[in-house]
Amino acid sequence: MIKLKEKIGYGFGDMASSMFWKLFGSYLMIFYTDVFGLPAAIVGTMFLITRVWDSAFDPICGIVADRTQTRWGKFRPYLLYLAAPFAIIGIFTFTTPDLGYTGKLIYAYITYSLMMMVYSAINVPYASLLGVMSPDPKERNTLSTYRMTFAYIGSFVALLLFMPMVNHFGAEAGEQHGWMMAVVVIAVMCALLFYGCFSWTKERVKPIKEKQNPLIDDLRDLFHNRPWWILLGAGVAALVFNSIRDGATVYYFKYFVVEETYSTVSLFGVSFVLSGLYLAVGQAANIIGVVLAAPISNRIGKKATYMGAMVIATVLSIIFYWFDKEQLVLIFIFQVLISICAGSIFPLLWSMYADCADYSELKTGNRATGLIFSSSSMSQKFGWAIGSAVTGWLLAYFGFQANVAQSAEAINGIKMFLSFLPAVGTVLSVIFISMYPLSETKMKDITAALELKRTKK
What we know:
Layout: H1 4-36, H2 40-66, H3 76-93, H4 101-133, H5 137-173, H6 175-200, H7 215-223, H8 226-257, E1 265-267, E2 270-272, H9 274-300, H10 302-320, H11 328-364, H12 369-397, H13 408-417, H14 420-433, H15 440-455
Antiparallel strand pairs: 1-2
């Protein structure tokens, strides 16, 4: 039985990752267009190029992690050694250099590419920890719940406080300085959380075979793992859904709702803007979804829970299109409902990836946990790559121009980003997950068979 302290420690890791991940998803596009000074189409192309490469880099991280042997285990050392580089490169990513257009573009490509690579290098081993902390599928569900709960708490804090920090630090020194200093605060918090995750967690599950298979065998086993392919497709589609909604939110409130015409909400001397509150409310609702995921999936199954949540999210997203900018109450209510659905699916995905590792080990005798879990990070990156690129390209297609009043066509396009376009992702995700074959009954048999093999070693 894993103790509460270790469950919290495991949650610290995704709390750190999610703080930056949400800044990338919600603010990096508008940072590059409205603060850094790059055209939307150029940013969309940059996101696609860098994230496609980085998606391919994730399996490399998993392969290396699987072959790591230290006194701390296979995966935990990466949390210790990469926490500081993760924070430092994150700060550089949100720094605006005093360069011309070409220099800025090169700087953006380099810093963003490095950020995504170090994110993979620390997050793939972190995700893989789930597969070696416990062999029990239900305990993995619990660990996934802690992970995602802390992830959304981190996202909630980051999204709620980020723009107030930008405004505070930039009041005298300028907007660009404000963005950089706000990220400095977030980066320090992330590094400390990764150190906490390293200190409070433990690797327990040992492979049936102590000797590591050749890489070609690991890859062959992975490519013949049908449940893995299904989860990969479902994960990419789900992240397209999330990335389009998150990436367009600030545009929606800045140019459609026109949040500057509304009074800011002040609490404890801190002024919050509507877009920040909307994003933070979404993260709080995600936590509700995470908490509901384990008990519901334990009762009706992971597959049925996932499909039900995505079907509801599809319907709600389509209805969202017809809200007028004055209907703020409905806009926020639907954000809560959609976010509950979105929050419930990700702990299920992480838990199902752990099941895929067990399925592969029983079938082949080889346990490539890092390689299998790297696919989850790969699907995240690839989903965000597609969603962010589509957002940048369609903003340009609809005639978006930074920091000016938008045309009717551009406004209609921005509304589509929070309604019909993300609904495409949810529909595709449902189609993929409907083919997932590892039921709860089948996983009980797999777990029992693996345990029997381990006891015979």
